[in-house]
Amino acid sequence: METTTEENIRIIFGLKLKKLRTDKKFSLQELSDKSGVSVSYLNEIENGKKYPKPDKITELAKALETTYDQLVSLKINKNMTPVVQVLNLKIINDFLFETFGVDKSLLMSMMASAPSRISALINSVFEIARNYNLQEEHFYFSCLRSYQEMNDNYFEEIETAVDNFKKENNIQAGTPLSSADYADLLKQKFNYRIDETDFIEYPKLRNFRSVFVKGEQPTLLYNRKLTERQKIFLFGKELGFAYMKIDKRPITTSWLKVESFDHVHNNFKASYFAQALHISKDSLIKDLEAFFAKTKWEPEFLINLLEKYNASPEMLFQRISNLLPKFFGFEELYFIRYSSKEPAKHLKEISKELHLSRNQVDIQYIIGEQNYRRWITKSLMKFLEKGRNENSKSTSIDAVISKNEDGDQYLTISILRPMPELNNNANSVTIGFVLTDAVKKKVNFLNDPALNFDKLGPIEELNYETPFALRKLREEETKQAEYDRLVRELKTSATLV
User: DSSP H helical segments within 279-403, as ranges?
Assistant: First the structure.
């Protein structure tokens, strides 16, 4: 969707003026001398700050040997068309300029200085988007992940909001509340009406978790199939929306439509609030200290934490990912979730992921590292699936230590569990860490043989997205073997001759 605003018209005019001036090889001073428009005013025009009056446009057109109509037209030189397309895209205006406060005129000025290269880049991005059927929401969620990664997934202002909410409502630290407790807070403090439903009148919504109806009395309709832990998260998130006075928000869970980046960002803030409200920061830090102090890998410890906090695996791992960088110095971690209603399609598509990395500049390195993280996650999940039968409803958890082609070691922990309440029969979450010096000093069970990577079986048997570098190595080995074979045949032929 495109949006042409007064600001965009000023910027387009400035881009055209600068392009015409540079094509004529005029300096700002030379154009000023020819048109009678001051250098400072020309600079403001070219940067999209000012739009000149008709008499000045007439003089500029004469100086540049063009017409008044051509100068004021919104049409632009062909090689700069993609730049203007970017300027007019609603998605760019939504989060690049408005949400993140990027100076639009400055960015356009930079783009105008090298229009051919920038245009080629933008055209390539559009082509990739078309080829892969990328929608606006893909960019929004990608932007959110970058926002989380830039902040190490820890947000002090939301933590403070949670602390204030607890104080105002006499909620004791370390004592997780029930879904009924959260529902009461919504009703008493924010005048909510909360109704359980099976959406029988709306068949298309039967697998949705909730629908929010805005009004004088806000109404939350939730699916009666939800488990206690799912209701805890849902009601906690509603408390986040209400307490932080968030108006722009999704009205359904799952999403019907992603309206803007504000909706994505605000949904994340409310979700963070729910996790921080339910799982006390101080309490979980103490539990993690105890977990890392153990000399043996004990998956039962994490199972016990799920019970202690009455939390889903996703909520627990997400909350852990908030605290590890800030309070333990684990700055290189990742979180990956796979989910599917069909077990056979599990591990086909990532439904949520987060990557914190020491290298945010080298794109090739980032892609390679993320591919490795996804691959080791799939490998471990495949191993967990092998140990289950089709009708198993229990939670499975395990961990391994692995090493990538660059020599970096990883500790990867995965939890697999079904979610039959909403016909989601395969759901898994993974958290992993690069074994940096900080991690090695903190985690005492890293030498436990139970974490041996070899237990997953031969790589060939797993056959799940082998990392690019490893695939490349194998291709090179195949080429070398073929080359050696040809050399042997040539030597043999020469001997026979």
Answer: 281-293, 299-308, 313-323, 363-386
What pLDDT, in 10s, does the model give residues 98-148?
555 555 555 555 555 555 555 555 555 555 555 544 556 666 777 788 788
How far is the C-alpha of 89 from the C-alpha of 53, rounded, in Å? 27
C-alpha 430/C-alpha 353 separation (Å) is 9
Residue 263 host element (H or E): helix 261-278
For residue 145 the two structure tokens come to 């992940």
Residue 433, phi then psi, degrees to nearest 5: -135, 140
How much is the pLDDT for 352?
84
Identify the CATH assignment for 153-278 out of 1.10.10, 1.10.287, 3.40.50, 1.10.390.
1.10.10
| 250-251-256-261 Cα dihedral, nearest 10 degrees | -10
DSSP 8-state secondary structure symbol assigned to residue 206: T
Report the C-alpha gap between 237 and 229 in whole angstroms: 12
Torsion of CA 162, 163, 168, 170, to 10 degrees: 110
Domain at 6-134, CATH from 1.10.260.40, 1.20.140.10, 1.10.287.1490, 3.10.150.10: 1.10.260.40
